[in-house]
């Protein structure tokens, strides 16, 4: 069986970043249209439908849509009370072997990918980072956005390659490392509201804390602590938006922090505003 390889060079993967936006889709798009550039849609909340090349695709949180140039599409709102929140990312100038220019591969021809837990959290993390960077005026803003975009593209290519290898019965280059990191990510997602000790996780896995941190960063690009903080802050923001009557202390406790002051410092560092001001701005 032929196996697609992605041994990319600088000329293959030197994308031009165009835009990113985070949109809550409350109305059906007016036009059935296509683009000359590539566009990726990442659904972070809710349910919806895409009409793509004459076919309807149901969407849910955790789905990713690949819209290659010339792909006709329209976002439909079928249930306004459960409408989607999505990141839209536009870019161009990539070249993947055996594909037309500016085209991403579609696994088994599917334009909609249902991301697994680990992949979903990594993609959400990158989208959040890109969204925050897009609204800053710091030096090197464009290049930081481009760096995040390259990571996102490579995550998609690697995930597709690994899916092929799994189905072929092939062995990963470092299966134990990947398994350990996936177990950690699953644990973080299931226990983020509890007190988590990296030392205890390492002990339970019969590994050193240093080694655990090293392989986690090698696989995800982030340290376990930063990854957990990012996850907790996103959960805190969701709670703040969905349950406006909750106190800051209660939200802090629900995402794993006994100290509301420490939680507030982390929240401000992450979102640029203290929880109380962030909430006030959202209600104004």
From TrEMBL:
<dbReference type="InterPro" id="IPR018062">
    <property type="entry name" value="HTH_AraC-typ_CS"/>
</dbReference>
<keyword id="KW-0805">Transcription regulation</keyword>
<dbReference type="InterPro" id="IPR018060">
    <property type="entry name" value="HTH_AraC"/>
</dbReference>
<protein>
    <submittedName>
        <fullName>AraC family transcriptional regulator</fullName>
    </submittedName>
</protein>
<dbReference type="InterPro" id="IPR003313">
    <property type="entry name" value="AraC-bd"/>
</dbReference>
<dbReference type="Pfam" id="PF12833">
    <property type="entry name" value="HTH_18"/>
</dbReference>
<keyword id="KW-0804">Transcription</keyword>
<dbReference type="Pfam" id="PF02311">
    <property type="entry name" value="AraC_binding"/>
</dbReference>
<feature type="domain" description="HTH araC/xylS-type">
    <location>
        <begin position="182"/>
        <end position="281"/>
    </location>
</feature>
<keyword id="KW-0238">DNA-binding</keyword>
């Amino acid at each position: 069986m032929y196996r697609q390889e992605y041994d990319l060079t600088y000329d293959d993967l030197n994308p031009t970043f165009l835009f990113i936006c985070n949109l809550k889709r409350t109305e059906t798009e007016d036009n059935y249209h296509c683009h000359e550039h590539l566009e990726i849609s990442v659904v972070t909340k809710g349910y919806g439908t895409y009409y793509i090349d004459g076919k309807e695709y149901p969407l849910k949180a955790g789905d990713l849509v690949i819209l290659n140039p010339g792909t006709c599409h329209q976002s439909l709102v079928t249930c306004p009370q459960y409408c989607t929140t999505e990141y839209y990312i536009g870019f161009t100038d990539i070249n993947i072997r055996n594909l037309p220019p500016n085209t991403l591969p579609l696994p088994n021809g599917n334009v909609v990918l249902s991301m697994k837990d680990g992949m979903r959290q990594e993609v959400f993390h990158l989208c959040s980072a890109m969204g925050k960077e897009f609204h800053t005026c710091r030096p090197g803003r464009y290049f930081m956005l481009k760096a995040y975009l390259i990571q996102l593209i490579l995550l998609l290519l690697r995930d597709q390659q690994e899916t092929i290898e799994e189905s072929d019965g092939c062995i990963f280059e470092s299966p134990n490392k990947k398994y350990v990191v996936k177990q950690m990510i699953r644990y973080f997602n299931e226990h983020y509201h509890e007190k988590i000790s990296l030392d205890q996780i390492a002990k339970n896995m019969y590994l050193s804390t240093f080694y655990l941190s090293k392989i986690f960063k090698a696989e995800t690009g982030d340290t376990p602590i930063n990854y957990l903080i990012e996850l907790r802050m996103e959960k805190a923001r969701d709670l703040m938006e969905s349950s406006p009557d909750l106190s800051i202390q209660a939200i802090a406790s629900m995402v794993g922090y006994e100290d509301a002051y420490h939680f507030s410092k982390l929240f401000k560092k992450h979102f640029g505003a203290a929880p109380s001001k962030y909430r006030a701005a959202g209600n104004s």
